């Protein structure tokens, strides 16, 4: 929270605040006919496009802790989490609406800080803010964002299209955002009520993955260039394990993935070791990676194998074979879903 | 909250709950290609339609009090508040997304009750639930709904089109929802910790306006039948006064409205008298009416005058003349905006 200057929200009023936040928003997309400032935004899409809509809610104390999460980063991350869902449909995000509920502890400067992160993410990904709602809350901050995007007709990729023998691929690496969270929690406790600074040295990457994640736009462009169309896709927000279960369940298939192939960054591994946690468990169940998990026909093996941002971690099998991880020792272990809630317990 | 049967949310888990709520949703509109159950909904609109998007957030303790607001009604009202914004653009609502944040005090039966109201409103107005998010909250209930609708290209009505000499019209009557709220608050205090029932006799109408509002779909159909296209339109969610200010500011005009023409229901007037409040002030500043406020060219006078659901309350004047209410005594009083927050103080 801002400590240098503090202007109360009441000094502007609700309408004044909304105008200050949304008065001069840029428009990047031709589809955004009329943005904030009316009862509804006016958008215009064409017959040959499908429109994609996704929504997410972030609650203070559940999804973020403002003692170590800067408001600007929070705004940025809230946008990324939403547009990542549009990319996960093989779409292009075009617009978002932003609803905020704020308790009295927040001042105008805080909200501007939050909004600056929202705007930065929108600029980076070419997205327009076309509306929203700003209201009060009894306790804490709530952020609800709806993202709207498009895909050429017939090009949206669902979770349900995975077929036997398809390859299972992930982008980037996994577990880093979760390890970043553990680091922040550890340093929060270590520095509480003490006059010392948190120690993040050598852990900048996992910190950034937690505090300023990015969406995997460039991988989709690469796949499209190479004419590879995923058969199923999802973004990894709740952990590889549960996302794989979504794809398998909705596609009516099973899977085999290989522990040794799961991409893990060096800092993630070091942090897990420091905390005496199993790094594979972190990669399987840690949330907020916003990497893409997708399946491709085996015929595309050569193409995806050549992409440095993509790792093939396993393959699709028949439903009757179930979902399993093959460990480094060659042992087959059944995959179990773990939601974000149980992750927070810190296994 | 449900007291007869209580199933904890944890017994189903997040994914189980979402599936239970959205597993069998009907699809009413051809535009809804794929609803809940993927990263994003897939919608399909045509070139000759404009797409309208609106969003609202409702926070427990700020927008509703669950001691007297039944969850089913709350769900219904949250949908109405959102689709009312689509109607206020002269559009037809087609889809909504529903995000809920719930604290531990809520059980599965509560959420099903809330959802039953959401679904009822959707059925009444032909709207599809195409997605959402369900998450936890540290305290209370937060509901965020985004509504998506369409209007034939060029037919969306903005706030900015009012012209000098246009007639100012409202649908239905005003202040009733606010008086319903005052009644509920009074009876909450009167019956607190006592073994008596609240007394709502003869006040059913204002109670219904607060607890189960409707959107003014049929008036738009009537206007369309009669070939009347409003020049500017807004829905009355924060009170006539502030909505008029939005239209005038965005249209660059002033207005004159007449106290004696403001439509007020008998029960609203009785309740205001009982509470020793000025009923015109209630109509001007009381929120949540979800009536439509719109302007039409003076040439349409005869047509709108003949519509029983519509009342002409004044006319548009030049910007330099400002915004004023002419009282029953013929005194001109400047109109001032009052947000919902200040209304709650109970003037």
At a glance:
Two copies of one chain form a homodimer. Chain A is built from eleven helices and 13 strands.
Question: What does it look like?
Answer:
Two copies of one chain form a homodimer. With 347 residues, chain A is an alpha+beta fold. Chain A has two domains: 9-152, 60s Ribosomal Protein L30, Chain: A (2-Layer Sandwich); 167-343, PurM-like C-terminal domain (Phosphoribosyl-aminoimidazole Synthetase, Chain A, domain 2, Alpha-Beta Complex). Helices cover 33% and strands 25% of the residues of chain A. The first copy, chain A, contains eleven helices and 13 strands. The first copy, chain A, has helices at residues 13-22, 71-87, 108-125, 176-191, 204-211, 217-225, 240-251, 266-274, 279-285, 301-305, 340-343; strands at residues 32-34, 41-43, 49-59, 92-102, 128-136, 142-152, 167-171, 232-236, 253-258, 291-296, 310-318, 323-326, 332-334. A seven-stranded mixed beta sheet of chain A has the order 8-10-7-11-9-12-13, with helices on both faces. In chain A, strands 3-6-4-5 form a four-stranded mixed beta sheet. Residues 339-347 of chain A have low confidence and may be disordered. Chains A and B meet through helix 1, strand 2, strand 3, strand 4 and strand 5 of A and helix 1, strand 2, strand 3, strand 4 and strand 5 of B.
* Percent of residues in helices of chain A: 25-40%
Determine the number of helices of chain A (DSSP H or I, runs of at least 4 residues): 11
Q: Sketch the major β-sheet of chain A.
A: 7 strands, mixed
Taking all residues together, what is the mean pLDDT of chain A? 92
Name the poorly predicted regions of chain A: 339-347
The tally of domains of chain A stands at 2
CATH class bucket of the largest domain in chain A: Alpha Beta
Distance between the termini of chain A: 31 Å
Name the quaternary structure.
Answer: homodimer
CATH architecture of the largest domain in chain A: Alpha-Beta Complex
Examine the coordinates and then state which fold CATH places here, giving the name of the CATH topology of the largest domain in chain A: Phosphoribosyl-aminoimidazole Synthetase, Chain A, domain 2
The proportion of residues in beta strands of chain A is 15-25%
């Amino acid at each position: 929270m801002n400590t240098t200057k503090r202007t109360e929200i009441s000094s502007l009023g609700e309408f004044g605040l909304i105008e200050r936040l949304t008065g001069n928003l840029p428009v990047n997309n031709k589809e955004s006919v009329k943005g904030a400032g009316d009862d509804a935004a006016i958008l215009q899409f064409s017959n040959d496009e499908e429109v994609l809509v996704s929504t997410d809610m972030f609650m203070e104390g559940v999804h973020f802790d403002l003692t170590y999460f800067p408001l600007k980063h929070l705004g940025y991350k809230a946008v990324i989490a939403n547009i990542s869902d549009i990319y996960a449909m093989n779409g292009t995000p075009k617009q978002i609406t932003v609803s905020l509920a704020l308790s009295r502890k927040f001042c105008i400067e805080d909200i501007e800080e939050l909004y600056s992160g929202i705007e930065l993410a929108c600029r980076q990904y070419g997205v327009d803010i076309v509306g929203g709602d700003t209201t009060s809350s009894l306790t804490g901050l709530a952020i609800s964002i709806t993202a709207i995007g498009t895909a050429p007709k017939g090009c949206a990729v669902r979770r349900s299209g995975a077929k036997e023998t398809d390859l299972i691929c992930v982008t980037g690496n996994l577990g880093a955002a979760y390890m970043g969270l553990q680091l922040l929690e550890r340093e929060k406790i270590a520095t509480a009520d003490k006059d010392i600074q948190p120690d993040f040295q050598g852990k900048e990457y996992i910190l950034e993955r937690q505090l300023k994640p990015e969406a995997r736009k460039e991988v989709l462009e690469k796949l499209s260039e190479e004419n590879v169309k995923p058969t199923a896709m999802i973004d990894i927000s709740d952990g590889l394990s549960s996302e794989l279960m979504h794809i398998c369940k909705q596609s009516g298939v099973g899977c085999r993935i290989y522990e040794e192939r799961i991409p893990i960054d060096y800092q993630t591994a070091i942090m897990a070791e420091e905390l005496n946690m199993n790094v594979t468990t972190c990669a399987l169940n840690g949330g907020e990676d916003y990497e893409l998990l997708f399946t491709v026909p085996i015929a595309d093996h050569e193409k995806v194998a050549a992409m440095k941002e993509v790792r093939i971690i396993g393959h699709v099998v028949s439903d009757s074979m179930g979902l399993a991880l093959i460990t480094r020792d060659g042992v087959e272990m059944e995959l179990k879903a773990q939601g974000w809630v149980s992750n927070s317990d810190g296994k």
